[in-house]
Amino acid sequence: MGLSLNIIVHELKQKGELWCAPSAAGEFEDVRHFLGSSTLTRDDCLYLCDNPDVPRTYPGYSFLYVSEATGGTARQAPPTPPASDALLTLAGPCPLSAVHAFLQDVFLKYRLWEEALDRSCVEDEGLQALLDLSTPFLRNNIVVVDPALKLLAHTKDAPCDDPVTVELIEHGYHTEENIRKFKLHKRFAPWATQEGFVINDSRAICKYVTVVHSFKTRNAFSLIVVMMCNEVDADDFLLDAFSLLLRRIAYYAKREYPEDKPAGNATDAFLRDLVNGSLDDKAIRERCESVGIPYEARFCLFYAAADAASAPLARLLADVARETAPAKVLLVDGAIVILCFNCFNSDCGQHCQSASCPLQRRAVSRRLDQLLDRYDLACGRSSRFAALPQTRIAFLQAKEAVRIGPRTTHDPQGLRCRSAYRHIFSFDRCCIDYLVDCGVKDGENLARMTRGCQVLSAIAEQDEANGTDNYRFLFQYLANERRMSLVAEKLHMHRNNVKYRIDRLEKTYGIDTSDPTTRFDLTLAYCICEADAAKPGERLP
Fold it and tell me: What is the pTM of this model?
């Protein structure tokens, strides 16, 4: 894109009195000195001449007629300039050669700025870098906010004494009070409906005239860019220069806020901040109401690692959003994250397993499991949590659950509670597996060296050597709370035989199952041993 006529006019005004042809407009790629008809090779160049008859002779080209003043003083451009067919007429003390050199510097200055902006986008330096590069050209203070009105970037090297902007920069987001003011003065409506710039000179909220450009996807906000005209007035040249910056911001708007965002842009931005743990409690409370998510509820978070080979990501995302509605769905680092707060059943421990969906449909987990089966994908589920500040922990739980969960299908002792779903793995179910993974230091599994685990390892070794099943017997004895008749029924043996076997085990391995601490240690040891044995490359006892 070339340099706009408005910017050229703004720069030329410092060289003398300037006259523009009626309805003059356009963009130019270069400026050239007219030296005859042979030099007229492009219609996107601005040609300079000092002969008032030249523009009339070549009407298909754009000319700047330079009328040099005598005696070194500028003269007023006459009401009807001598070169009435010229696009521009400049009357001043500078000769044509000096004006040509000046305009070449102007073109170079703006061209270097645009190249720097493009380079920043290619190197993915972010929105803040774009604003830093633009300060010398725009001079005004500019802020970029996301759909939830969180601050993403702001001009750092330009003065700003507007209270609303100062508060935004201080907090990192617009407060609920400022949002109330925007609603009261109906600011959101023009931002959402009008294309191009929205100029507000009422000074009802901001103490300066503001120029707003909102990027939208399907009539929803993505990025909102606000320029306060605290240094330079919002004339045509400034808007054209502002547009050069906005063309580069559009790159980030399209990349970060694609059309297929099922949760809505404002909700996605808020959920992403929750998942990243970048919000404090006050910010969460102020922003959750604007996106329709309660601060406290019966929450559950799902994490499904998307597989590009299974289906196009856009289609998979749309299917998940439809099947889990009204839960909120977004994409985080190539994985689908679902925040569910649909359950009305206060007695449900794993609330999304019950059929208590507000849409009177099958439970979310049931719908999601069937969809995952179609795409052959796995999903992790967090523990139940009650408030939005715990979202970050829930996200990490669900992410670990989908990594560890497939191991828990190998469970010969039945230690883990059985899931009703094939493709959804709960962190509650695989928590011990996670702790066992964390317990490996310097290649040694510290958890396996507890007293309880050593006893079970010794029993398992003797079983393998002698063909006995004392490992399984002791587990059933503990799991059935040492009730002789029940253990005998489950293992198909006589009640007296149960007493005989447990007495021998206690004597052989130095344990006392009547002691509650010993029973807890052994039960935990069973969980640790099973989790460790289920790790890749391990063999169950």
Answer: 0.54
Q: How many CB atoms lie within 10 A of CB 306?
A: 18
**Amino acid letter for position 355:** A
The fold of the 445-533 domain, in CATH, is: Arc Repressor Mutant, subunit A (1.10.10)
Residue 151 backbone dihedrals phi, psi, to 5 degrees = -75, 125
Check residue 230 and report its DSSP letter.
S
Encode burial over 390-407: b for 16+ CB neighbours within 10 A, e otherwise: bbbebbbbbbbbbbbbeb
- Cα torsion angle, 58, 62, 68, 69, sign: positive
- Residue 493: exposed, middle, or buried by beta-carbon count in 10 A (0-12, 13-18, 19+)? middle
What is the per-residue pLDDT across 92-129, written as a single tens digit (0 to 9) for each?
888 999 999 999 999 999 999 999 999 999 998 999 99
Q: What 3-state DSSP class applies to 487?
A: helix
**CA pair distance 498, 496, nearest whole angstrom:** 5
The terminus-to-terminus CA distance of the chain in angstroms comes to 71
Per-residue pLDDT tens over the stretch 441-490: 776 778 778 888 889 999 999 999 999 999 999 999 998 888 989 988 88
Choose which CATH entry (3.30.450.40, 3.40.50.2020, 3.40.50.11260, 3.30.470.10) describes domain 124-256: 3.30.450.40
Q: Cα dist. 232→89, 236, 241 in Å?
A: 25, 11, 12
Note whether 68 and 16 are within 8 A (CB).
no
Q: Which amino acid is present at 312?
A: P
For 482, residues 6+ apart whose C-beta sits below 8 A from its C-beta are 502, 513, 514
Structure tokens at 366: 């049931």
Sign of the Cα torsion 370, 374, 375, 376 reads positive
Residue 273 C-beta-side C-alpha neighbours within 13 Å: 25
Tell me the residue ranges of DSSP E strands in 130-239. Answer: 141-145, 151-154, 198-200, 210-217, 220-228
Of 167, 234, 161, whose CA–CA distance to 196 is shortest? 234
Distance between CA atoms of 485 and 496, rounded to whole angstroms? 9
